[in-house]
Each structure stands twice: as structure tokens, then as C-alpha cells.
Amino acid sequence: MFYAKKLNKMTYQADEKGYYGEFGGAFIPEMLYPNVEELRKQYLDIMKEDSFQKEFKALLKDYVGRPTPLYYAERFSKKYNTKVYLKREDLCHTGAHKVNNTIGQILMAKRLGKNRIIAETGAGQHGVATATVCALMGIECIVYMGEIDIERQAPNVARMKMLGAKVVPAKSGSKTLKDATNEAIRDWINNPVDTHYIIGSVVGPHPYPDMVARFQAVISEEIKTQLKEKENRENPDYVVACVGGGSNAAGAFFHYLDTPEVGIIAVEAAGKGIYTGESAATSALGKEGIIHGSKTLLMQTDDGQITEPYSISAGLDYPGVGPMHAHLFRSGRGEFISITDDAAMKAGLQLAKLEGIIPAIESSHALAIFEDRKFKEDDVVVVNLSGRGDKDLNTYIDYFEL
Amino acid sequence: MNRIKEKLQEDKKLLSIYFTSGYPEINDTVQIIKSLEKNGVDFIEIGLPFSDPLADGPTIQESSTIALKSGMTTNKLFEQLKDIRSEVSIPLIIMGYFNPILQFGVEKFCAKCEEVGIDGLIIPDLPVDVYNDNYKAIFDKHGLKNIFLITPQTSEERIRFIDEVSDGFIYMVSTASVTGSTKGFGEETKAYFKRIADMKLKNPQVVGFGISDEDTFNDATKYAKGAIIGSAFIKHLNKHGKNNIEDFVKSVRPV
């Protein structure tokens, strides 16, 4: 009875084969099967170990700087006539939520006996977070990054190098994030025994989407406690987060997925406009398909070739979404909104002026919904401020001619 | 009888060639198939190009990118192959990633394969358990053999399961690598070839990945029934075009 009730309740979580409704699974070539299977068999047990939890929590506290504040944004709230809290993931070490996952995965890799780490990165945030934890643990680190992104994100490339990582340019295809992911997967095929692949988002074959979501779940776990202190309630009316692959959103939604009274709002990048051909609004433009080993919503041609997304924000520039988000969209559990480059840039500048916080352009997309999406005066809305804007200064400077 | 099963019964080591359809020129597909058969190749894998071929190295990815840029599509491939069986009698296998097949519609894709005379499919990112649960009945209905891969890391238990589900041959990936990335086989690889041979599987094995010339072909087929060449042939096409296929086949298996 207890189990039946519990199972029934957990409908928006992955099942044991890694499916969220009809999305997810592990569509991988046989060459990857042993690696992925080794991880799948062990990840839940390892995560449950007391010693793992102790080490994970200690590093999140003392190294990452958690818990991150839940900050009531008074001037922002006043402007939009509702109550807005910002979950300050931008204050994490390395500047974004990404490090929650890399801390978890490096501890996982150590327990699996791996001594070589590979990762993919788009803008470089996940690459930096991975290089950071590899430096912390003294483990070899190789980061695949699209050749074009290497040119666009020079400061992050320098950071990774300072941290001792080797940055390998992905020269195939469109030379961006999706190709960096392909190259990392190929590296894993070529190095099946000693290497762990730290995927940076809730994408890829099972168990990655579920494992990464669980590492990021600390975000919503803290929101619950903090909101209880501030508002005497654990549940906000809405949680808002931007979605590229969707790891910060997965973390912010995680403990609210099966609490229907909490509205879930996922914000995608519309780029220059959903139907301009330069967009990354996967829920609007994607069809069911397979990318990087996962069945999900995917931007593709009628012939099933994966197309190039576009967004001013490199972190949202992915042609798919994690299978959890595909399911939230398809099932209607999540509300999906897409925000253009222009709207996001304005929202970023506005937050700087109203609250003294310069957000990452990814997070600016989540902040931009308040212009059109109206909330009630007494609604409590938590926005996950996934990263800080330092890395985006050049983009802000060019855009606003500062 | 299915042409693949028939071919596997011949008393010789089989040479198979992979090429990407629509490469080097979009309308070369049929001519390359005919030329390979004429020069004694035993069966052919026709690559359906994909934008993100995870299991392939740079040579095959590049050929796919070029084919796609020239306008290659799934429909176009079936159009090109519509009369192939009036001229070609060796087994033909389509090798492609799952997403384009999913978008075409698995049932429709299999029906089209049967219509033009395709004998089997190799879909690297369609795992054996998903195939078994969801698609086997469709493949069977259209007389298509689905070919699965094994690698040096595949457990014995899983190899036995794959042998159970297979009804044709098993594609034995020579080393832990993507296509086109090895030079010669070391002792470890040769020991793996022997280990698999000693398992006495019901399906014959055909070795792929890392075979590029006569030496590697002979090493690979010492225990296995045959071997598949892909990247080395694509490189040959790239360098010499489609009119010099005879030289390539002879360099691997001298008459």
C-alpha cells in the first residue's frame, strides 16, 4: 500500500529504465554499453552511501558555498506587483549551478575507480566546473569544446587551462556544443575502461538525466527549507527556470515535480524569434527524436537530421531538451515560455539596475517572462538565478554599447 | 531464403564493403553498388547519412556531411535503389542511425526496404533490448535481418543474448574505437577474435572497424567468417573517385 502510493506519486521522475513518460531511455551504440551499464547499475547505490553523502554535502558547503541564498527581490517584485525570490546559484563557486553536478560526478568517478575525466562544454561553464573538480581531486581532465566556441569564449578556455585541463577543439559538424558532445562520446568509446564522462546537463543516455537531476536537486531542497523560514511555507506558487539542456531547471523543479499546486515554468531561448530559423525553442520547434542517446524533443529536419539551434546565450544553444522537460511539456505539467534575445538582454540589464545583480544571459531569459506573464500580487514566485553575468560582459557591452 | 543467410553458407571468407550513399556524388550510389559486386565483393553496407554519427570517426562523418549537403535523404536513397534488384544479386544491408529511420517511420522504412530488396539493417544506436521489445516483429514481417554489434568489452552473457536474438551474423567490432581509427591488430585483439570463435555462437561473426588492407583482412578473418571495410574505402573514393574500385578490392583480396 505504502509503495503503491509512493510509486503513484512519483510520476514525473524517471522510471528504472530511465523513461520520463515516453521520453528518455538509452539509445547508445554497443561500444558504449559497458560504460553506461556500469554506471547505471551503481549510481543509485553509490549516491545512497553515507560516506558519499557526507563527502558530497561537505564539499557543497565548504567548497561551493552552499546553501546559496534565497533572496527576496524587493524592487523587482514591486515593479511586477508580485513576490519574487531569486535562488542565488550565481553565487556558487565558478559562477553557476553547474558545479553541483560536477562535484557529485567526480565523487562518483572516484568510487567507480576511474582516473581520467572527459567532458563537453558549450560556453565553457560546465568545462570550467569540471576542470575545477578535477584540479580539486588531482585527476586528469580533457574538455571537448567546439572550435567556434573556443574562439567565442576565450576567458573560459584560459580558466580551464589554468585549472590544468586539456581543451580539445571539436572540428566536426557545426563545431559547437552538439559536436563537442559527439567528440566526448567518441572519446569514451575509445577509452572504455579508465574514463568517466561527466555530462553537464540532464541529457544523454540513462542514467545521466536522472543522476544529474539528483545532484542538482539540492537547489529545490534548499528552496523548501528557505521558503519555510521566510514565508512559513515550503511550496511557492511558481518555480521559474531557463532550459537549454535543462539541468538548473531540473534541480529547481525536482522536489516540486509531484506537487501539483506548485506551477512549473520552463523558459526557452527563442533567439531572434521562434519562427525566424534562428531559435533554440525546442518545445515549439522540436519533434520526438533521438539525440546523444536519449529519446526527447529535438530540433531536426523532416528527414531526421539534427539542426543547429541559435541563441545569444551559449548555455541555451542546444537542439534538444532533457527527457524530463520533454515529458513536462508533453504532459502539460510544465508551462513553457520562450524569450527572445532582445527581451532577455533587457531583463538582464534591468536586474542589474534594480537589484545590483548582473545575471548570466541564460538566467536573464527566466527573468524576462514577467513582462508578459502576469502573476497575482500575493503569488510567491521563485526564479532560479542559475549563473552570474561575468562571463557575458562582452556580450552585454556589445549589445548595449556600454 | 534470405540472401544474407545464403551468402554466409558459402565456403569462403567474406569481404564486405561499406560506403555512404550519396557520396562522393549524390547519384553515385547505384554505380558503386554495381561496381563492388562486379569486382567480387560478397555483400554491401549502404550507409544512410546522418548529421551526428556517434560511432563513426572523421572519415565517415565527413562523407555523410558531404552527402547531406548534396541533398541526400532517406526518400532519395529508396528512389535510387528502386530497380537495384534487376541488376544486383549480392546481399544489401542498410546501415544507419536510428533517428532518420524513426522520422521516416519504422514500419514504413522496413516496408520500403523489402520493396527495393534490402536484406538486413545495421542500426548502431538501436539497442538489442529496445529492438526486441518494440521492433523485432516489424523487421521479421518484412524479412529483414537486424545485425547487432559486439565489442571486446561486451560481456559473455550479453553476447549470448545477442546471439539468441540474431538471425544472420554478428558484427564484431575489432577494438574499442570509432570507425577508421586503428592501424593493425595487436595480440590483445587477436586473442579477442579467438575468444569469440571459441564461444561457438550460432551466428557467424563478421569483423568490422580497423580493417583497411590485405593484412588486416586476413587477421580479422582468421577465425571470423568475414570482414567489413568502411573508412578505407571512403578514403579511396575520395582520392580516386568511383571509377577505380577494382584496384581497391584487389588490394584487399588479390585474385
From TrEMBL, chain A:
Enzyme Commission designation: 4.2.1.20
Pfam families: PALP
Cellular component terms per the entry's GO annotation: cytoplasm
InterPro entries xrefs: Trp_synth_b_CS (IPR006653), Trp_synth_beta (IPR006654), Trp_synth_beta/beta-like (IPR023026), TrpB-like_PALP (IPR001926), TrpB-like_PALP_sf (IPR036052)
Residue numbers of N6-(pyridoxal phosphate)lysine PTMs: K98
Keywords for the protein's UniProt record, in alphabetical order: Amino-acid biosynthesis, Aromatic amino acid biosynthesis, Lyase, Pyridoxal phosphate, Tryptophan biosynthesis
Catalytic activity: (1S,2R)-1-C-(indol-3-yl)glycerol 3-phosphate + L-serine = D-glyceraldehyde 3-phosphate + L-tryptophan + H2O
Reported cofactor(s): pyridoxal 5'-phosphate
Domain Tryptophan synthase beta chain-like PALP: 65-387
Pathway info: Amino-acid biosynthesis; L-tryptophan biosynthesis; L-tryptophan from chorismate: step 5/5
One MF annotation (Gene Ontology) recorded for this entry: tryptophan synthase activity
Keyword Secreted applies: no
UniProt cross-references to SUPFAM superfamilies, sorted A to Z: Tryptophan synthase beta subunit-like PLP-dependent enzymes
Function, in words: The beta subunit is responsible for the synthesis of L-tryptophan from indole and L-serine.
HAMAP family xref list: Trp_synth_beta
Quaternary organization: Tetramer of two alpha and two beta chains.
NCBIfam families: trpB
Protein family (similarity comment): Belongs to the TrpB family.
Protein name per its UniProtKB record: Tryptophan synthase beta chain
Gene that encodes the chain: trpB
TrEMBL record, chain B:
EC nos: 4.2.1.20
Keyword Chaperone assigned: no
Gene3D superfamilies: Aldolase class I
Pfam families found in the cross-reference section: Trp_syntA
Active-site annotation: E45 (proton acceptor), D56 (proton acceptor)
UniProt pathway: Amino-acid biosynthesis; L-tryptophan biosynthesis; L-tryptophan from chorismate: step 5/5
A GO molecular-function annotation: tryptophan synthase activity
Keywords: Amino-acid biosynthesis, Aromatic amino acid biosynthesis, Lyase, Tryptophan biosynthesis
One cellular-component annotation, GO: cytosol
InterPro entries according to UniProt: Aldolase_TIM, RibuloseP-bd_barrel, Trp_synthase_alpha_AS, Trp_synthase_suA
Presence of the UniProt keyword Phosphoprotein in the record: no
Catalysed conversion reaction: (1S,2R)-1-C-(indol-3-yl)glycerol 3-phosphate + L-serine = D-glyceraldehyde 3-phosphate + L-tryptophan + H2O
Signal peptide: none
Enzyme category, top tier: lyase
Quaternary structure, from the entry: Tetramer of two alpha and two beta chains.
UniProt family annotation: Belongs to the TrpA family.
Entry-linked PANTHER family: TRYPTOPHAN SYNTHASE ALPHA CHAIN, CHLOROPLASTIC, TRYPTOPHAN SYNTHASE, ALPHA CHAIN
Purpose of the protein: The alpha subunit is responsible for the aldol cleavage of indoleglycerol phosphate to indole and glyceraldehyde 3-phosphate.
Descriptive protein name: Tryptophan synthase alpha chain
Lineage: Bacteria, Pseudomonadati, Bacteroidota, Flavobacteriia, Flavobacteriales
Gene assigned in the entry: trpA
